[in-house]
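Thread title: Can someone regenerate the structure for this chain?

I was given the following input by a collaborator and told the matching structure tokens would be attached. They weren't. Posting the sequence so someone can regenerate them.
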Amino acid sequence: MAVRTAVATRAGRPGLLVTIAALLLVAATFVPLGYIVSTLFSTGFHETAELVFRPRVGELLRNTVSLVVLTVPICLTLGIGLAWIVERTDVPGAAWWGPIFAAPLAVPAFVNSYGWVSAFPSLHGLWAGVLIATMSYFPLVYLPAAATLRRLDPAVEESARALGSGPVEVFVRIVLPQLRLAILGGGLLISLHLLAEYGAFAMIRFSTFTTAIFEQYQSSFAGAAGSTLAGVLVVCCLVLLAGEATLRGSARYARIGGGAPRAATRVRLGVNKIPVFLLLAGALAVSLGVPLWTIVRWLRLGGSAVWNMTDLGEALGQTVGLAATAAVITTLCAFPVAWIAVRSTSRFARIIEGCNYITSSLPGIVIALALVTVSIRWLPALYQTAATVLAAYTLMFLPRALVSVRSGLAQVPVGLEEVSQALGKSGVVTFFRITLRLTAPAAASAAAMVFVAVATELTATLLLAPNGTRTLAMRFWSLSGELDYAAAAPYALIMIIAAVPVTYLLFTQSRKAAGL
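Best answer:
Regenerated them for you:
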């Protein structure tokens, strides 16, 4: 049974090591912010004010806010609806739909945008941005919602159905309130991605703060105008963080005791089975069909000559190596922050958690330039090394892992940890035997999201990668920039294909860990 539980307990309080680890992460997140602030200070107050209070900034703010306000509710509706259908109904192929609906994360947003523009050349403006952003980012809601649904105690839902409530009423009154963390976290994460996205909106000629920042950096590399716009993005991020924290409150939801060690009884769709199946197929066709069709067209035009297996193999190996390493590091880094956020209701906990979201609202080029500046001035040994690239990935994608890990930790009963410690088990043993096991589904979703994000990341990798690094995304961008779309197609296709088995494996392991 899902209940609100107290968090001020000995087992639930963050320890010294957890707090130190979280503070170190917070210190790292302030590196890009320090870069922006130092640039603004060097610019001067009057020039900065002139750059901020001008009509162009008002136009960018209106476009960006409209994009967030329209896209986030659509993504929430689509992601939660698909998660409920896949996890709680007897729709055909439920075991396969889960990882399939994570696959859109493997398609870089700029590839998705180009696919739509190729199919519909007149596509541009705000609604085109909403369409492309929805198809690219709804899995950021789907994955944490599906992980939460797998962990919910089915007893309350079964009792409600026994009392005569229908599936829709049970979902609205029982399930939806327990998805609050996934809803708020997913909505926040999508909003931050919308603030930072560049390629997708540039291709449809829709101006946002990030597209304007890239234009400024292209003309003056690290000019004051670009840094000023990045500062406005930080303010927008703070507004989103404050709103999410207010709506979330201090409640956490967990089972009493071990809960029901079984999956929820799936709702029988009956005559609606075929329409629901067609709905899932339609969502898949819209989210993946258009970019895949474009890639297939490129491959058909290029023929066998575009399949350079040596270059493809090298790019694939480097992509998997970077993505897997970053997924493990980022998910581990998410645990101390999520622990403090879930187990403490203090203002300190909110600050610790919120600081890790701010950096992800910045364009990748800003983060990359900040790390380049720091490494050249103070840590030259790290300049153009894999360590710097992995640091950038961690700063950029920690919120993806944090949303899922936080949701999983919120459902771990503190009482089980207290019992373990009362039986003489240390805090470390308790964490690995109880806490980590119960959060495995959420951690698997976190790792999957980070893996796919890194595998398709472009901007920071271009600026920070050591000489000789050529990931799939880098090769695709290089070739497409030369207008050789046929030669770029295999790299885009491999990025999409590689994400499906990895995500399916993580889903399978998460279900085993949950005993489902």
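Confidence is low (pLDDT under 50) at residues 1-9, 256-260.
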